[in-house]
Amino acid sequence: MFEQDKEIVESLLDNNKNFRRLYNKHCQLKSKVKEANEGNIIIDNLFLDGLKKEKLQIKDRLSIIIEDYRHSHT
Question: Nearest CA to 21 among 51, 50, 61, 73?
């Protein structure tokens, strides 16, 4: 996630509490979705869809923060 913006992500993780909180939540959701898709944990499809939607919403919010950072530091 956000490989092309690695330096920006690292800076935001160090300096922006909201970004760090969202990033950590996204990582948790990504891991849970992966485990469910691999069959390592059992959850129903409706719940899994909810996790995927939440993960995508958080990724969108992270992208906005990264874009704002990029514009304010150019």
Answer: 61
Region label for 2, one of left (φ > 0), alpha (ψ between -120 and 50) or beta (otherwise): left
The radius of gyration of the chain's CA atoms, rounded to the nearest angstrom, is 14
Count up the domains in the chain and report the number. Answer: 1
pLDDT value for 40: 95
Q: Which two tokens stand for residue 55?
A: 């993960």
Report d(CA 3, CA 47) in Å as an integer. 28
Residues 6 or more apart whose CB falls under 8 angstroms from that of 41 comprise 32, 35
At 71, list the tokens.
């514009």
Domain extent for 30? 3-72
Residues of the chain with pLDDT under 50: none
